[in-house]
């Protein structure tokens, strides 16, 4: 019995890369998967039997997480493509994307695009905002020349031994970025977007590409997001800089709103934690509370 990871699925066949020798094997899932209502997806770690021409998946290993659109399991990090303009940079949307990613136990990295289309002053302001994200422990790529080789290489250096997905608002320049990294990825994306538009009953195909020692996939861009899966108690845990200071809050389980002796609020006042992040936190908390009332 061997172990590996599914990197591609086509009409009932699964291409698996072996954990030890990196060999690519075409497999099928044993019939008992369907009976148990389990469907292997791209990114799944599996144990399998190498049957020569065709192998058989015997067991799926537990997933650390799984995305729905498109279905990918065990994602380690997400490159959040964020444009300076068209669509205009919004800290509210960026924070919403970041917490949705953190909620899935995925590490977000921020990649700024289209900053050559704004004035130097506007760029300096944006860079200042993004340095705040850097302080909050996010990796940020914010060169004014978005696709310069040095920055692209720095990005690819994060791929090794990980499963990375690309995400971002529609029109943020994700396709252009992918084209610079690997045009094959981009072609695959166009195919996914088409099948997604065709309706919910079509099978969505997604593949993981081997790039710079890791596995990479794209996800379709999105235009809106909600926080429906996130509990109010979870929300403060999705802001890394709040997590860092909350042990110093006077009360355990502090929500950093009106509680006395709140270290997070103190850090906001001292400009250690970005005011915009804190304001967005209060805004999201309010949004989550309003969902609760509706149901
Ligand atoms: Zn607090």
How would a crystallographer describe the biggest sheet?
Answer: 6 strands, mixed
Q: Compounds present?
A: zinc ion
Estimate nothing, just give the exact number of structural domains: 3
- Number of helical regions: 9
CATH superfamily of the largest domain: P-loop containing nucleotide triphosphate hydrolases
**Major sheet: order of its strands?**
10-9-8-11-13-12
The value of Rg in angstroms is 21 Å
The overall strand count is: 13
What would you say the CATH architecture of the largest domain is?
3-Layer(aba) Sandwich
CATH T-level topology of the largest domain: Rossmann fold
Indicate the structural class: alpha/beta
Q: Report mean pLDDT, rounded to a whole number.
A: 90
- Overall shape: it is globular
Strand content: 15-25%
Q: List the secondary-structure elements in sequence, H or E.
A: EEEHEEEEEHEHEHEHHEEHHH
Question: Could you characterize the architecture of this molecule?
Answer:
There is one protein chain. The protein is an alpha/beta fold. The chain is 33% helix and 23% strand. The model is unreliable at 199-203 (pLDDT under 50). The strands form 3 sheets. It has a 6-stranded mixed beta sheet with strand order 10-9-8-11-13-12, sandwiched between helices. Strands 1-2-3-5-4 form a 5-stranded mixed β-barrel. The protein has a two-stranded antiparallel ribbon with strand order 6-7. It has 3 domains: 2-62, Beta Barrel (OB fold (Dihydrolipoamide Acetyltransferase, E2P)), CATH 2.40.50; 72-220, Rossmann fold; 235-294, Ribonucleotide Reductase Protein R1, domain 1, CATH 1.10.40.50. It starts with a strand and ends with a helix. Helix 2 crosses helix 9 (275-294) and helix 5 runs antiparallel to helix 6 (183-197). Bound molecules: zinc ion (ZN). Zinc ion binds at residues 246, 249, 254, 256, 259, 262-264.
């Amino acid at each position: 019995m061997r172990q590996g990871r599914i990197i591609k699925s086509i009409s009932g066949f699964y291409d698996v890369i072996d954990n030890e020798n990196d060999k690519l094997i075409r497999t099928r899932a044993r019939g008992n998967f369907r009976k148990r209502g389990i469907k292997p997806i791209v990114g799944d770690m599996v144990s399998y039997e190498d049957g020569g021409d065709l192998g058989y998946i015997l067991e799926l290993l537990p997933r650390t997480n799984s995305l729905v659109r498109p279905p990918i399991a065990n994602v380690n990090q997400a490159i959040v493509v964020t444009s300076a303009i068209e669509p205009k940079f919004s800290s509210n949307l960026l924070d919403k994307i970041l917490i949705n990613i953190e909620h899935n136990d995925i590490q977000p990295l921020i990649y700024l695009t289209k900053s050559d289309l704004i004035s130097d002053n506007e760029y300096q302001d944006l860079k200042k905002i993004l340095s705040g994200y850097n302080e909050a422990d996010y990796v940020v790529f914010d060169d004014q020349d978005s696709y310069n080789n040095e920055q692209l290489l720095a990005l690819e250096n994060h791929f090794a031994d990980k499963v990375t997905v690309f995400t971002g608002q529609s029109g943020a320049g994700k396709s252009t970025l992918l084209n610079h990294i690997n045009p094959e990825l981009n072609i695959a994306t166009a195919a996914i977007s088409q099948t997604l538009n065709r309706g919910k009953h079509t099978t969505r195909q997604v593949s993981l590409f081997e790039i710079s020692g890791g596995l990479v996939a794209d996800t379709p861009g999105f235009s809106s997001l909600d926080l429906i899966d996130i509990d109010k108690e979870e929300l403060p845990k999705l802001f890394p800089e709040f997590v860092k200071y909350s042990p110093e809050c006077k009360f355990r389980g502090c929500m950093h709103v009106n509680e006395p002796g709140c270290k997070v609020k103190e850090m906001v006042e001292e400009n250690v934690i970005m005011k915009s992040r804190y304001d967005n936190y209060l805004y999201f908390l309010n949004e989550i509370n309003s969902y609760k009332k509706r149901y």
